[in-house]
Amino acid sequence: MPRPAVLSFALSAGLLAGSAQLAAAHGIEAAADASVPPAFDITAADATTDGRLATFSMEVTGKAGSIVPERTGKLAGAEVDAYVWPTRLDPSAAGFDKGSGILALAVTAHPDFDDTPLFDENGDGDPANDGAGWHSHWVVLGEDAACAGGLKVRDVSPGQDLLPDTAPGLPIALDSPGMSPLIAGSTVRITVPVAGAENVNFDAVAARLKVDAEGKAPLLCVTGTYKVASGKLTLPGVIVKQAK
């Protein structure tokens, strides 16, 4: 498996600009790359909204969701694989502090811990053993040079920083809203309630993250990417009004 690439961009370069930079094409297309595992080799991404719900999707060359991290049996140092849609939506759209970072929607799998305590994704009657299955999160990302990929899920103090009601209580800006991703064939798709998404820019990334081995901040780092749909995380996609 190739070594994940490092995300290289600067927040100060306008990633969090308030006005959307509309792309010529609303979706994103990328050439297949034989050096990327097919499960993460993104070739297209799209996003639509009806004003209340937004649907994000991405296509890969192989079977989506067919690769998950190996189980180690402990939270410390646990790895996470993720299909991620970074957006220019303000974090307050998902219940986080306004202007606190990059709001991203993620579909993740991590066999060593369960961060969706309100939901029983595998339907076995135990809501605390579901991390290995693919599930959804809103996260707020921020730059951190201590992370190999240059980004982290923002560290927070529960009770002080604003978090959504369905946040699992971890000291990071992460919400577990319970919307189920649809993974079939080469497609990953997720629909979430979010207002104000029309004409907002987005990108699509297949990423790897890792929990700090000592449980210290930064607690959850982006360690690299399998592939960025736009190539350089320029967020060229545009969330468009869903056709009736």
**Secondary structure tally: strands:** 15
Give the distance, in angstroms, between the N- and C-terminal Cα atoms.
42 Å
Helix content: under 10%
What is the percentage of strand-forming residues? 25-35%
Query: Runs with pLDDT <50, length 5+?
Result: 1-6, 8-24
Domain count, please report it. 1
Q: What is the mean pLDDT? A: 89
Shape assignment: globular
Q: Main β-sheet: number of strands, strand sense, barrel status?
A: 6 strands, mixed
Radius of gyration from CA coordinates? 16 Å
Order of helices and strands: EEEEEEEEEEEEEEE
The SS-based structural class is mainly beta
Number of helical segments with 4 or more residues: 0
Structural write-up:
Residues 1-6 and 8-24 have low confidence and may be disordered. The termini are far apart. With 244 residues, this protein is mostly beta strands. It has strands at residues 28-29, 42-49, 53-60, 79-86, 102-109, 135-143, 151-153, 174-175, 182-184, 187-193, 201-202, 205-211, 220-228, 237-238, 240-241. It has one domain (11-241). Strands 1, 2, 3, 9, 10 and 15 form a six-stranded mixed β-sheet that branches. A six-stranded antiparallel barrel has the order 4-5-6-7-13-12. A two-stranded antiparallel sheet has the order 11-14. A hairpin with an 8-residue loop joins strand 12 and strand 13 (220-228).
